[in-house]
Specification:
single chain, 998 residues, alpha+beta, 6-stranded antiparallel sheet, 6-stranded mixed sheet, 67% helix, flat
């Protein structure tokens, strides 16, 4: 990985955008980041770390003060890091979270953190990601280094050298874990520990289950008194011995089951015999009760015999009278029918005689007893009523016809009104079309100048902005001219001072030589050993004075060139802005822009108005065509309505004539129809009643004659005797069923009594008390024996199950115990317990191997840096009081041949050892990260604590790091390093406070 460029703005001590071009140090190989303490040298590395990883380690434990305290609310905070790897060239732009002015409503709002990742492809930056999570994912694949690894192998920040060297095992393990990602080994240890605890808990649970099962079985044996005179098992005894005692009790329980089962079977036989005796006694008792019931039933049947004889006689008489029922009923019906017809005839005659003479039927009064005459009259009147009925319907529909005429008139009025409104609207449309056409043409002319107005506003805006910038640049040019004058005066003064010093230097050379003459020593100029009149050195000037004056002269010359460049730039920019402003002042340009903007607004409004006018004009023209098309339909509707009114009026006149012809002197046709209809009904009713009277009289005479003939041939003296003997079919059936039931029941009961008498039952009722008591006693004995047998079987079965379960659990626990011992040994070894004599956990063991590799890499440099005296060695010695161990580092001193702790080294020795260890750590981490190429390296450490020799050794080591094209950046304020490293980045505080980078 190689860093190319860094832009910092509003970050740390930097307010304005500062740029660091790392590529300009590629040829030097090593450069110095110099500056006074607190100026912000380390903030450059903080910016690199923030840009790539979004965080700065030294701020993460407290207030994250990434945004510069010099920033005003409107200032931007941003870091841009440009770098390259084997995957290509990339640029990261990142901003922290900070408060900025709200765009709406005033006040402050929180600016969310932002980040963007780009890649240089085909001479352009192409965006790859713009969300923090996406950028982090892309950078993981590009950098192939975590932040901890990056800080350990590329940004060797302050206080990280000695901390790793002097740390204890626990702190060193924490750092190495982050660098090498060995958390998975700690996870393996945790999983094994969890498995050990699970196995231990399972084994404990299994043992508790066995103990509970044995205790339950022993309680069962004790409660059932199955120990057989032996002492109960002791809970302290081993499980196998307790199981043997339980098996013996099981045998005794099985014997008890056999005994109780035999007793249960004997009691069951006795119970069956007692229940059979009870059943026989109950059967005899039931037969005795049945015999008494049969005798009582026969007595009741004998007492009812006279009633049955009477019923049999009545049934015989009713069946004889039944043969005359039809003739008797016919005579009665004929007589009743004759009486009814006479009543109907009288009512019909009364209705006929109620006529008031309005119908002109007086000629029929002498023929009211002639049915044929009456029916002829009804037929004639019915024919006439058919003609009058149509007139009555027309009379009834008179109001409907009037309403129809009124509706037709309303249709005519409505059609005429629509036609007038239609003509009025059509008459005003041509004037509306003409006005819209004029409005559309005006809007089109204004809209056609829209693009022209936009160009004018754009040019006016550029002129206004150029006039404002020209005014500003004019002032800057005047200030630049003054700066050039001041720089020229400063340069002239510096050149004069340098010339004066050089002249004084030349003049004082004789005094310098004289001051160096010694008695009897040859002169460096003439070789004489005598020095009779040495010159005096009254105004000494040293080479250091000359160099300082030259530096001041060069600095003044550079300042003058910078001022001239700034003046040239200001003048050219000012001239360019004046050309764009085209002679306009800011005020006149603003007025011009305002006028043209107003014209642009008019043109933009005209575009919308043109579209609206076109739409409205199209709608008016379409309405005109629609009205022309609709007028013919309206005229046709009016004509049709008028024709409908004429037809309706004609139908009304015809109906009135028909009604007048049908009135016949009545108030209405309906009244005439009602009267005639009533008369027709009366005539027909009277004619029908006369014929019914004739028919019923004849039928009554015939029925009376038939009844007299039937009575003469029967045993009955009169019709009344027949009526008294008659019974309904239901009554006859009831009499028959009663007689049959009595006969059948007497025969049935006599047969039952005969069967019971044949059994020779005792006369006295059997007593069941003694037999039932014997049955109860036998049942109680059987129940007691049954419960005893069931309890014995249940106890034996429970004991058998408990012994089997305890035996199986004991066998399984032995297997689990063997597996647990193996697992516990492995877990203890991985966790640094038990047989692990070094007390080193699995993760520590892996990290110890990495530490040994780091120490070997560090010793390759430390040997040269210490001229073979010191070597670092990995120590796995046990720490005191159980502290973490296995990752110790000691120093081997070849002068003494002894190992000693790193804390015993001096400050310079600690620095060299720490530097060697840090570089070794960087090599190993780089190799573990896939052998990535590290082309840029930064070292931020206290070089000021080193003496001259140690500093020389450190510088020689840093110089070696440049091999392979690597660029090394060193942060220090040591003056000797500034003299030895010409390529420098200088961080200085400005007079206003913020730092700048030169």
């Amino acid at each position: 990985m190689r860093l190319h460029r860094l832009d910092i703005q509003g970050f740390g001590p930097f307010l304005d955008r500062q740029t660091v071009d790392f590529d300009r140090f590629a040829d030097d190989g090593i450069f110095l980041i110099a500056g006074r303490t607190g100026a912000g040298k380390s903030s450059i590395l903080d910016a690199v770390c923030f840009g790539l990883y979004g965080g700065v380690p030294r701020y993460e434990s407290g207030d994250k003060r990434l945004r510069s305290d010099h920033c005003a609310p409107e200032h931007v905070s941003e870091v841009v890091v440009e770098f390259s790897t084997a995957a290509g060239r990339f640029r990261v732009t990142r901003s922290p979270e900070y408060l900025r002015p709200a765009k709406r409503g005033g006040g402050m709002t929180k600016q969310a953190p932002a980040v963007a990742l780009e890649q240089w492809i085909d001479d352009a930056w192409v965006g790859l990601a713009a969300r923090a999570v996406d950028v982090a994912g892309e950078l993981d694949g590009i950098l192939q280094l975590s932040r901890e690894q990056f800080l350990q192998v590329i940004l060797l920040a302050q206080n990280r050298f000695a901390r790793f060297l002097l740390a204890d095992s626990k702190e060193r393990q924490s750092l190495l874990r982050k660098l090498f990602g060995t958390e998975r080994f700690d996870d393996v240890q945790a999983r094994f520990e969890a498995r050990r605890r699970e196995a231990e808990n399972a084994l404990t649970g299994r043992t508790a289950t066995i103990e509970a099962g044995l205790a339950q079985a022993e309680r069962l044996v004790t409660n059932a008194d199955l120990w057989g005179g032996h002492e109960p098992s002791d809970s302290a005894q081993p499980a196998p011995q307790r199981l043997d005692g339980l098996r013996a009790a099981q045998q005794r329980a099985d014997d008890r089951v056999v005994r109780t089962a035999s007793g249960r079977d004997e009691e069951s036989v006795r119970l069956n015999a007692a229940e059979a005796a009870v059943a026989r006694a109950r059967e005899v008792r039931a037969a005795q009760q049945e015999r008494e019931e049969v005798r009582a039933i026969i007595a009741r049947l004998d007492a009812a015999e006279p009633e049955v004889v009477l019923a049999r006689s009545n049934l015989k008489r009713a069946r004889e009278a039944e043969a005359l029922r039809a003739v008797l009923d016919a005579a009665q019906r004929a007589e009743r029918e004759s009486e009814r017809t006479l009543q109907d005839e009288a009512a019909a005659r009364e209705a006929w005689q109620r006529d008031d003479g309005s119908c002109g039927d007086d000629d029929l009064d002498t023929h009211e007893n002639d049915p044929a005459r009456l029916e002829g009259y009804a037929d004639r009147r019915t024919t006439q009523s058919g003609t009058w009925q149509r007139a009555a319907d027309l009379e009834k529909a008179a109001s409907a016809r009037a309403a129809e005429i009124e509706a037709v008139q309303k249709q005519i009025d409505s059609a005429f009104a629509r036609l007038e409104a239609h003509d009025a609207e059509r008459a005003g449309l041509p004037e509306r079309i003409a006005a819209l056409t004029v409005q559309r043409d005006d809007a089109r002319r204004a809209a056609d100048r829209l693009d022209e107005r936009r160009r004018e506003v754009s040019v006016a805006t550029a002129r206004r902005d150029a006039a404002l910038e020209a005014e500003k640049l004019g002032a800057e040019a005047e200030a630049a001219e003054r700066s050039v004058v001041d720089a020229g005066e400063t340069l002239a003064a510096a050149q004069s001072a340098l010339a004066l010093l050089r002249r004084r230097r030349l003049e004082g050379y004789a005094g310098e030589l004289a001051a160096s003459l010694l008695p009897d020593e040859p002169c460096a100029v003439c070789g004489s050993r005598e020095h009779p009149a040495p010159a005096e050195h009254s105004d000494p000037v040293s080479q250091t004075d000359i160099d300082a004056a030259e530096n001041a002269r060069d600095e003044a010359a550079r300042a003058e060139r910078v001022a001239l460049d700034r003046l040239s730039t200001s003048r050219s920019d000012h001239a360019a802005r004046l050309a764009v402003a085209d002679g306009r002042t800011p005020q006149s340009a603003a007025v011009e822009l305002e006028e043209l903007s107003a014209a642009l607004n008019v043109a933009q409004s005209a575009v919308g108005l043109l579209a609206e006018t076109d739409d409205e004009l199209a709608r008016v023209i379409a309405r005109t065509e629609e009205l022309e098309h609709d007028r013919a339909a309206l005229v046709d509707a009016l004509t049709a309505a008028r024709e409908a009114r004429a037809l309706t009026q004609q139908r009304h006149a015809d109906a009135e004539q028909t009604i007048a012809e049908a009135l016949g002197g009545f108030a209405s046709v309906a009244e005439r129809l009602d009267i005639v209809s009533t008369r027709i009904s009366a005539a027909r009713a009277l004619a029908g009643a006369l014929r019914e009277v004739q028919r019923s009289k004849k039928a009554a005479v015939e029925a009376a004659e038939a009844l007299e003939i039937a009575l003469a041939a029967s045993d009955f003296a009169s019709a009344d005797a027949v009526r008294q003997a008659l019974r309904s079919s239901v009554e006859q059936q009831e009499l028959d069923e009663r007689i049959t039931a009595h006969t059948v029941q007497r025969e049935t009961q006599r047969e039952r009594l005969h069967a019971l008498d044949e059994r020779a039952l005792p006369d006295e009722e059997i007593d069941l008390t003694g037999i039932l008591q014997a049955q109860t006693d036998a049942r109680d004995a059987w129940t007691t024996a049954l419960d005893a047998a069931a309890r014995a079987e249940s106890i034996a079965e429970q004991l058998r199950d408990l012994i089997a379960a305890a035996d199986a659990a004991h066998a399984e626990s032995a297997r689990e115990h063997e597996e647990f011992e193996v697992l516990r040994g492995l877990a203890d070894t991985i966790a640094g317990r038990g047989p692990n004599t070094h007390k080193m956990a699995l993760e520590t063991f892996v990290l110890a191997a990495e530490l040994e590799e780091i120490v070997r890499a560090a010793n390759r440099r430390l040997s040269d840096m210490s001229t073979g005296r010191y070597q670092l060695r990995h120590s796995d010695a046990l720490a005191a009081r159980g502290a973490a161990s296995g990752l110790g580092i000691v120093v081997y001193d070849a002068f003494t041949g002894q190992e000693r702790p790193a804390q015993s080294l001096s400050g310079g020795e600690t620095f060299l050892s720490s530097l060697a260890l840090a570089l070794g750590l960087a090599e190993v981490v780089t190799a573990r990260a896939g052998g990535i190429q590290l082309d840029t390296l930064f070292i931020d450490e206290g070089f000021g604590s080193l003496d001259a020799d140690t500093l020389e050794v450190a510088m020689r080591t840093l110089d070696e790091l440049r091999s392979g094209g690597r660029t090394v950046g060193v942060i220090s304020h040591v003056e000797s390093m500034q003299e030895q490293i010409p390529a420098q980045i200088v961080v200085a505080q400005s007079e206003l406070g913020p730092s700048i980078i030169r």
